[in-house]
Every structure is written in C-alpha cells, then in structure tokens.
C-alpha cells in the first residue's frame, strides 16, 4: 500500500527532517507513528499525501511513485487518502451533513449518491441524529467524529490520523479509537501519529518510532517506548 525508498527531507531553511527512510506498509495494517516532538512524524505522514515532497528518494502508493505526479493529478491521489487532524478543520458555517458531503460535491457525485453515502458514514461514527447540527453545537469528540466521517466518505484506501486524540479527554479518546479500529476492520489501512502512550500500550498494533528523522524502531505489537 505504502512504500518509502531512501526518503530524506531537508527544508528550504536547511533544517533536516527525515534521513534515509525505508519502510513498507501493507494493505489493511494499522500503524502507530511515535516519537518525540520534532522527530519528523508530521513530515513523514505529509509525504504520503504529498503535502511535502522528499529531497531525496521516492514515495510509492499502491506501486505508483507519487513524486512523479503532475499537479493536476494530486487531487486524484488525495481522494484515495483520508486525513484526520488534531484540530478537526471543520467548516464552521456548514452542518455536520454538509461538512461531510463537501468532499463528494467537489467531485460532482449525484445528490442521491451523496445523501446515501454521507448518512452511511455518519452511522459508522454514530452521528446520524446530529446531521443538521453546526460544529459549534457539538462536543470536541463529536467534532472529531465528523472529521473522521469526512475522511472516509470517499472510501479511501488509506486514512492518516495526525494526533486524532490530542485535544480530547481520555474517555472520548477511547471512543475515537473504537471507531478507527472499526474502520480498519473494514479493510482501510490506518497510520496514526500519536503521543498517547496509554492507547499505544493498550491497543497493540505495529509501532514505527522516529527520532531525529530516522526510524529507530519498527515493531509488530510494539509499545510506545517514551516517558511523558
């Protein structure tokens, strides 16, 4: 599903972010990306949806070198990749339904298809009853669930979650993890960058640890490995 070959990244200001990354992530895996702040986790995941491009090396999604894509091809790549952010990034004047539907409207899906698919994903995240609510009428956990619904409405092959529980209380964080595990069981590959030691140590998955821009550990059913 995802492969990085000898990927390095140095920003324009000369700051190195990644060094000689080699990694393969198979279809259907659930992978935690862990490491100290500033280790390169965010750069690592931005490479996958081409928010950033490597200074050296190549990134492949389903066998295609995404570094060779033309600018007009990038939106098509991103339709296969759902992204969940720590700060939700919802459109404040649109309802829950409209926020999720927006991704389908952009690609001009028929209205009946949009309605059916949006209600399906709102059911997955347990928010069908709040389809008409505005974001500021929801709790933080509910807003994150809308963000998840928006990320999966295009039925992506990969979901990237960047600190999805970072702004949530512990109980709500576990609810979000239940939903992410459900999505993974349905066949979607999930990469989750996180500082949440309790989640990583309790819900055992593959752990890729990054320090100073290098992969220092890649373990099946690994632990968090850092004191907080």
From TrEMBL:
GO molecular function: ATP binding
Cited InterPro entries: AAA+_ATPase (IPR003593), ABC_transporter-like_ATP-bd (IPR003439), ABC_transporter-like_CS (IPR017871), ABC_transpr_LolD-like (IPR015854), Cell_div_FtsE (IPR005286), P-loop_NTPase (IPR027417)
Keyword Lipid biosynthesis: no
Location in or out of the cell: Cell membrane
Main localisation: membrane
Domain ABC transporter, residue spans: 2-225
Annotated membrane topology: Peripheral membrane protein
GO BP of this protein: cell division
Transmembrane segments: none
Keywords attached to this entry: ATP-binding, Cell cycle, Cell division, Cell membrane, Membrane, Nucleotide-binding
Function: Part of the ABC transporter FtsEX involved in cellular division.
Family according to the record: Belongs to the ABC transporter superfamily.
Subunit structure: Homodimer. Forms a membrane-associated complex with FtsX.
Protein name: Cell division ATP-binding protein FtsE
